Amino acid sequence: MSKFTFNNISYTCSENETVLDVLLAHEVAVPSSCRSGLCQTCMMQAVKGTPPGAAQKGLKDTLKAQNYFLACCCHPDEDLELALPDTQTARVRATVSNIEKLSSDIVGVSLQCEQPLDYKSGQFINLFGENSLARSYSLASVPAKDQHLTLHVRKVPDGRMSSWIHHELSSGDSVEISLPVGDCFYTPGNAAQPLLLIGTGSGLAPLYGIARDAIAQGHTGPIRLYHGSTNVDGLYLDKTLRQLTRQHENFSYMPCVSDEPVEQQDIASGHVLDVALQEHAKLAGWRVFLCGNPNMVKAAKKKTFLMGAAMKDIHADAFLPSA
Amino acid sequence: MNQTLFQKLGGEAAVDAAVDIFYRKVLSDDRISGFFDDVDMEKQAAKQKSFLTMAFGGPNNYTGADMRRGHAHLVQRGLNDSHFDAVVENLAATLSDLNVAKEHIAEVAALCETTRNDVLGK
Ligand SMILES: Cc1cc2nc3c(=O)[nH]c(=O)nc-3n(C[C@H](O)[C@H](O)[C@H](O)COP(=O)(O)OP(=O)(O)OC[C@H]3O[C@@H](n4cnc5c(N)ncnc54)[C@H](O)[C@@H]3O)c2cc1C
Ligand code: HEM
Ligand code: FES
């Protein structure tokens, strides 16, 4: 049993409750989404006391040093005084510079940050909306090539943030985002290593960023990108990626459709993971990137590992829904 | 003596070399893979490293009571001697893949044996 205060109100936290559980149970408006330590939307700061190390996993060292922590993983072992992140240090204002329809349920959102954002393609940012709503979106843009940050947002049925983005948000609007998060990105140093990228739906966003980033950084090994969608309409970067294939000899793209018959010769029929792994029986020495549907990502991590990819070479972002 | 076994095997570098191979074998072994079917493979892999360090006689802070507590939920799910034997078998096969000498493999197996009762909650 421990105590914490937030906005001058004191709360008690029993052993099996997290700080987030307690705040939400008291209907205190604080942001959260995945509730599993992954998205960092629930980040808070201990202005007095020290948060447990287990609640700081995945945070940048500079944030750890300032006693930032994740409320959804925090079982305090001493009394704490808490605050929401200071907007100056942990958030960035950005202006929507463009919104374009990419398919019937995916839009591309371009953001212009007030100050240049130091990020890597494939990382994600958290977008903050009204009533402490916060959701994660991956970065499809490449810092060295693109002027703006780009997100690909799929509309989830009755989804609060994605509906707002699709229906309300427009060019010129100002939004608040987090600093970039996550370690699903390309690192230079082994330019000849073959890369396998597998994504479903808007899971293509980070992969598109990673592939172009690898190319921009002079990657010479094969870059094999597989994009899965239930229907042909969902292959929302088909044209762009075919063009990229023509421009770069080491890059290839295979669109896969799982739930409707396909007539085109150049689209594979079946689930993207099956298609990709059929074409790559051995993955020893490969670097693997997996993004999108959490079930696909989980299965793919295990399968690619069993097929020989080293654990340290498997990078993934499961697009966990809000809990 | 245990410390020297750990050194003879190559210390932490040996653990790093073994962890992927061992974990791949365990996940592919239908007799025991169910116990390791964690959502989070990275977390599970970190635990495999702790296991290997211990089995190689390396520095660790686990007590017999920790082993008992750490595996109690698995014993409830039916963990028994046959599963224990399968783990030791996979470990021996891993070391053999890494060209570790037979006598050292036997030492590792003997070291594992000392934890059997705690792991199985006997
Ligand atoms: C690391 C990370 C990166 C992400 N990157 C992207 C990205 O680049 N592009 C993108 O479009 N999304 C991405 N997401 C998902 C995104 O953060 C939101 O979860 C998503 O947009 C839904 O939010 P919402 O507020 O619209 O829906 P909510 O209001 O949170 O959900 C409404 C209902 O729909 C359910 N639901 C939510 N998602 C799904 C789903 N996929 N399928 C079925 N039911 C669902 C919820 O459980 C809930 O019942 C990412 C998630 C994570 C964790
Ligand atoms: C040879 C004797 C064994 C030793 C020395 C040993 C040691 C360990 C250690 C050190 C951990 C990590 C604990 C932690 O830090 O959380 C662990 C966890 C684990 N062990 Fe063992 N182990 C042994 C046998 C087995 C067997 C036979 C099985 C099942 C077939 C098994 C399944 C597991 C699992 C699933 C975990 C993770 C538990 C969790 O998710 O919390 N172990 N073991
Ligand atoms: S990390 Fe806490 S809600 Fe996602």
Account of the 3D structure:
The complex is a heterodimer of chains A (323) and B (122). Chain A has helices at residues 19-25, 61-65, 87-90, 160-167, 204-216, 238-247, 272-278, 294-306; strands spanning 2-6, 9-13, 43-48, 68-70, 80-83, 91-101, 106-113, 124-128, 134-138, 149-154, 174-178, 195-200, 223-229, 251-257, 268-269, 287-292, 314-318. By secondary structure, chain A is α/β, with parallel strands linked by helices. Chain A folds into three domains: 2-87, Ubiquitin-like (UB roll) (Roll); 89-178, Beta Barrel (Elongation Factor Tu (Ef-tu), domain 3); 195-318, Nucleotide-binding domain of ferredoxin-NADP reductase (FNR) module (Rossmann fold, 3-Layer(aba) Sandwich). In chain A, strands 9-8-11-6-7-10 form a six-stranded antiparallel β-sheet. Chain A has a six-stranded parallel β-sheet with strand order 15-14-13-12-16-17, sandwiched between helices. The relative contact order of chain A is 0.12. The model of chain B has no long low-confidence stretch (mean pLDDT 91). By secondary structure, chain B is an all-alpha fold. Chain B has one domain (7-119): Globin-like (Orthogonal Bundle), CATH 1.10.490. Chain B is globular and about 35 Å long. Helix content of chain B is 71%, strand content 0%. The interface between A and B is small, with 8 and 10 residues. Protoporphyrin IX containing FE binds at residues 32, 35-36, 38, 47, 50-51, 54-55, 62, 70-71, 74, 79, 83-84, 87-88, 112, 115, 119 of chain B. Protoporphyrin IX containing FE (HEM) binds next to helix 3, helix 4 and helix 5 of chain B.
